[in-house]
Write a structure and sequence with these properties.
Length: 70
């Protein structure tokens, strides 16, 4: 059965820019800004799946780490 959605976690990169990693798939990409990241994620998904087999929806879940002193 074909998945209808793929989810990526998005983090700010320590070197600057953004990193995106797919949940449940070996897909990773990075970019300098959010617009470029969206293009790179779409391209990476198309490259990973056979033609016509890619999920119809790509969800980007932004994760921002925070530190709270105890």
């Amino acid at each position: 059965m074909q998945e209808t959605e793929i989810i990526f976690t998005v983090h700010e990169s320590p070197e600057g820019g953004y990193e995106a990693r797919a949940l449940g798939y070996s897909i990773f990409t990075q970019a300098d800004d959010v617009d470029e990241l969206r293009r790179n994620v779409r391209e990476a998904v198309r490259a990973h799946f056979d033609q016509g087999k890619a999920p119809a929806v790509i969800r980007l879940h932004s994760v921002k780490d925070g530190v709270i002193l105890a």
